[in-house]
Amino acid sequence: MVLSDDRPSPLERRDQLLEIAKSVFAEHGFQATTMDDIARAAGFTKPILYQHFDSKATLYEEIISQTGAQLVDRLTKAVTSVTTPRSKIESAFRVYFEMVVNDTDAFRLLFIHAHEGETAQELRKIEVSLVGFLVPYIDVSIGHDHRRQLAAGIVGIAEGAAIVWLLQQETKGWPTPAPDEAQRLAAHAATLAWGGLRAVHKD
């Protein structure tokens, strides 16, 4: 009889460590969290943690990078399924806030803790990638530099709304969001952004 081996594979263990580390970082922030904290939460020894990640900074950066890549990938898939400029903006906001609501720990890292010293650059990287993603969906008759400024404004709307929502959730003790919470946040942000874009004068 062949005995089953329920031990996680190296890849599964790595993914598990990333999820646990994300939760610990979200709760305490980058500076206050130690590798001992993460190993303890994962139920592993610290040497096992170091087998997968060279340092706390490397672990943190991978979480942020992974979150950013997932966000851009989902945004790309969402906007390809719609045709009008407004529907693309609305779809982008919907995907964005679905991730905010459903992966709260990741966005707590991005928007509440990622402003701490050496980790701030990771948030900037994601913001720059989001601006670059949005530029093609803004009226091409507007100059490129102006389009980038408008795209940055849209990113600011989304980020600002996400920060306030996260802080409100924290104040309330992290209640379970309503089923339509992401859709509600997206609708409000999209209405504001689209109204602003329509009022922009062409160059």
What does this structure look like?
Helices cover 72% and strands 0% of the residues. By secondary structure, it is mostly helical. The chain has a domain at 64-198: Tetracycline Repressor, domain 2 (Orthogonal Bundle). The protein is elongated, with a radius of gyration of 19 Å.
Main attributes?
Tetracycline Repressor, domain 2, 0% strand, elongated, mainly alpha, 9 helices, disordered N terminus, 203 residues
| CATH top-level class of the domain at 64-198 | Mainly Alpha
The CATH topology of the domain at 64-198 is given as: Tetracycline Repressor, domain 2
Shape: elongated
Supply the CATH superfamily name of the domain at 64-198: Tetracycline Repressor, domain 2
Query: What's the gyration radius in Å?
Result: 19 Å
Mean pLDDT: 86
**Second-tier CATH architecture of the domain at 64-198:** Orthogonal Bundle
Number of helices: 9
Distance between the termini: 75 Å
Extract low-pLDDT stretches: 1-5
Describe the biggest sheet? none
Structural class: mainly alpha
Strand-and-helix sequence, N→C? HHHHHHHHH
> Which range does the strand content fall in?
under 5%
Give the % helix. over 70%
Number of strands: 0
Outline the fold blueprint.
Blueprint: H1 10-28, H2 35-42, H3 46-52, H4 56-79, H5 85-102, H6 104-113, H7 120-134, H8 144-171, H9 181-198
Helix pairs in contact: 1-2, 1-4, 1-6, 4-5, 4-7, 5-9, 6-8, 7-8, 8-9
